Amino acid sequence: MPKVVSIHSYRGGTGKSNFTANLATTIAMQGNRVGIVDTDVPSPGIHNLFSLEPENTNKTLNHYLWGEIPIEEAAYDVSANVELKGDGKIFLVPSSFKADDIARILKEGYDVSLLHDGFRKLVKGLQLDYLFIDTHPGLSKETFLSIAISHILILILRPDKQDYQGTAVTVDVAKQLKVRKMLLAINKVLSKLNFDALQQKVEETYNLPVAGIFPLSEDVVQLASEGVFCIKNPDHVVSKEFRKVAQQIMA
């Protein structure tokens, strides 16, 4: 049965899109057909990681939400873009990164129920094993929908007081929406911190498992969103941590 996985954070700047791209790619590397939908319509960005250029992207999630195309037409096979080997596939449905389109959807809004229909059609039409939803930070009706329909919700936080407080709110909302499974991922952790103590503190605070702890890495920063890190650096400690999280998703 296909799994829907939402990746969310209460605040921006947590590395959510980078996390989504690397985790989805790691799972695709195991021979799975993986879809990603960028629902962060006000500030899309995950397309950069998959080298999806504006001149080659004339159909997006926006055009589906406006009733102009079936959602499958906005799904781009980006497997070759990241040099994915084997039988796995990655399909990306980007949000439009044109200023006029962003302004229009912010002004007019869209029918949130269309998202649910679109997710279902995408899973069926592309025969996906996993569908990842890259959400917009914070809490909104769009986010509530993505959280509510997910089989797994991964909440990303940094070891930061604002992140801790925001994550607590998000966890409470997700519990009210009866999310089936929640996992935490701690990102951008300074190497001098005690990772075991940090994991224990976070798990006790939220009564949820920590799926992975990712160090603040200059190597990741240096890549500057020009590609998917785990493909380019498969033996790096960050890539190994993504494989650890992937195993928990695929279990």
UniProtKB/TrEMBL annotation:
Record keywords: ATP-binding, Nucleotide-binding
SUPFAM superfamilies xref list: P-loop containing nucleoside triphosphate hydrolases (SSF52540)
MF terms in GO: ATP binding
Recorded superkingdom: Bacteria
Coiled coil: none
InterPro entries referenced in this protein's UniProt entry, alphabetically: DNA_Partitioning_ATPase, P-loop_NTPase, YlxH/NBP35
Protein name: ATPase involved in chromosome partitioning
